[in-house]
Specification:
It is built from eleven helices and no strands.
Amino acid sequence: MPITIGLVILQRLAFHVAIPLGVVTVAMSFVAALVCCRATGETDTTPIGPMGKLTQLVYALLPGAAGQTVINLMAAGVTAAAGASAADLLTDLKSGYLLGANGRRQFIAQCSGILFGVLVIVPAWYLLVPDKAALEKFNPPAANMWKAVADLLTQGGHMLPHTAIVAILIGAAIGIVLPLVERFAKEAVTYVPSAMGLGLGMVIPFQNSLSFALGALIALVWTKVRRNNAESFNIPVASGLVAGESLVAAVIGILSAAVGLLAAK
């Protein structure tokens, strides 16, 4: 309740979001958190963007929010951030559980991290982005995409291609039918694709989807050929590949930034 009140007040003071709309934002955060947690548990990928887009769609229809780009964006930001944080917390708690850590102490550590994170991140943000002009120099692609969706939803659906509308309706229908089949036709569950998997396959880059498919195929063949060996080394090998890719990407980013700074001088 204190966090809900704080979020509603913050939205009102900073972004002029009406109190009822702020309450709706927090309520939608619970839905976004449930979806993000399930998707992360099933696929290890958190659908932050799609949850934000869902909120943007809802706010495009709500009285008082229709036609308001800032309100549309900020509401999506709140729900998407809540979903992402919930999924991250679950992965941390699950890792601690597997390692035998104390859940209560983990939770206290997470809360401490939130406090100190705010004290560091907010000043750092204002140092990097003191005004609108500084923000526009960064040209963030994800933020621009969210802004484009907000413009579309607040200015009218006529800006959306007809084929995109058809795709949205087809996707919505599939997303409803698959869980119903899982619920009422349990004998067919083995042959029903994952709604989360299909949805993520549509929104994440193709190379990621291809990597998931290849990894799953390798794990399947490995298990069929040498089950005991696969059960012992499958997860460590996969984790090493993921961590290695992330470290290499970080090194490339650091080197690229260093080269850019040297070139600027």
